[in-house]
Amino acid sequence: MSTTVRLVLVQEVYDDLLNRTLSRISCDLGRLIYLASTRDYNTGNYYHEGLASRFSPEVARKALEMAHRQTFYKVSGFSLEDLASDLEAYLRSTRENPQEFLRTWQKLEPYRIAIPTEVNLTVARLFTSNLRLALAILRSRQEPSQPHR
Amino acid sequence: MIGTSSALIGAVVLLVLILVWIRADSTSRRLPSTLDGWLPDQGDAVEVCPPEFVSQIFSGQDLAFISRLEWPELKRHFLRERSAVALLCVQQTTTAIRRVMRRHLEASRLSEDIEFAMEARIFLQYAQLRLICGVLFLLIGLAGPHRLHGMALRADKLAQRIGDVLREFESGARTGEMDGARSS
After folding, report:
1. End-to-end CA distance of chain B
2. How many other CB atoms are found less than 10 A from the CB of residue B176?
3. What ipTM goes with this model?
4. With an 8 Å Cβ cutoff, are A126 and B57 in contact?
5. Considering the entire predicted model, what is its pTM?
6. CB under 8 Å to A62, separation ≥6 — which residues?
7. Using CB atoms and an 8 Å cut-off, which of residues 105-134 of chain A contact chain B?
8. Which domain holds residue B166?
9. Is B65 in contact with A80 (Cβ distance < 8 A)?
10. Of B34, B43, B150, B167, whose CB count within 10 A is highest?
11. pLDDT by 10s per residue, chain B, length 184
12. What secondary structure, in 3-state letters, does chain A show?
């Protein structure tokens, strides 16, 4: 398969992923967490059964990797205010207890696994730093009695 | 008398600058490795932070938002976090450009047709960038990244420009090598 044909195919799979799956997720952080979850923890390879069966595992892997990196850069580029809103939307979409969710996220920092393998180190650091701050902001909104002033 | 007091003031300023440098250096070393030691390892392929993120890191937008929340502890936390990211950004730029320059020097040593004017221009831009990075490194802890937006963008532009010139030089050298191989 020529490089051009392969690139066109990857783009096709990418568009399919955007239109069918990612558009159903209400916030960008949710999309990021979803895309990170399609990556195998042991090998770092991406896998999506539907895409792999309709196209090929290799092309699906490339498209997922591309979507993951792009979504990561998009979320990392959010202002703190926008990130806090997006995190709030993600929190609502999980339907978990907000206090418990925020406590767990602050403690375990599960968003670390949402970082793609090959990204700029400074951007990755900005992402984690902003999420820590956004969590602190949301927690103060959820628990207004917290003595912080 | 004026001479002695000037020397004394100079020595104190120098001492303060050295202390600030040491503090900034230790912050930049400590924060990424202990808090985020799990971050992706870039190995030898250290790259300059993309311009839109440099602008974001050094902008005052987030600080303005945090200030509106009127929560002093969070503001301190934000300034600490953002300074660490800004220091990492400067450190990455310095490391990346130093590596590119080292590669360029090695290539220049082997090259037969060195353009003196071009080499001088690259060196001057490099020296300017190192100076700006040094000043940024010093001032991030003192003034905060949001007050250094213009300087950080200037450093980023210079880093991009040096990268472009060197890429041009490398592709020119490759073309020359291919022409040489064809003619022999």
Report:
1. 73
2. 13
3. 0.86
4. yes
5. 0.83
6. A10, A13
7. 112, 115-126, 128-130, 132-133
8. 2-183
9. yes
10. B167
11. 568 888 888 888 777 777 766 666 666 555 544 345 445 555 555 688 999 999 999 999 999 999 999 999 999 999 999 999 999 999 999 999 888 888 888 888 877 777 788 888 888 999 999 999 999 999 998 899 999 999 999 999 999 888 888 877 777 666 666 666 556 5
12. CCHHHHHHHHHHHHHHHHHHHHHHCCCHHHHHHHHHHCECCCCCCECCHHHHHHCCHHHHHHHHHHHHHHHHHHHHCCCHHHHHHHHHHHHHHHCCCHHHHHHHHHHHCHHHHHCCCCCCHHHHHHHHHHHHHHHHHHHHHHCCCCCCC
Residues in chain A: 149
User: What is the C-alpha separation between B125 and B120, in angstroms, rounded?
Assistant: 9
Nearest residue to A132 via CA among B58, B90, B36, B40: B36
Lookup: tokens for B41: 């390892």
Residue indicated by tokens 């300074």 = B83
SS3 B91: helix
Tracing tokens 């912050």 back to the chain, one arrives at B27
Query: Tell me, what amino acid is at A123?
Result: V
**Which amino acid, residue B184?**
S
Number of other CB atoms surrounding residue A118 within 10 Å = 10
What gap in Å lies between CA B39 and CA B17, rounded to an integer?
A: 31
Q: In degrees rounded to 5, what are phi and psi of residue A117?
A: -70, -50
Domain boundaries in chain A? 3-142
Q: Which residue has the tokens 């191989």?
A: B181
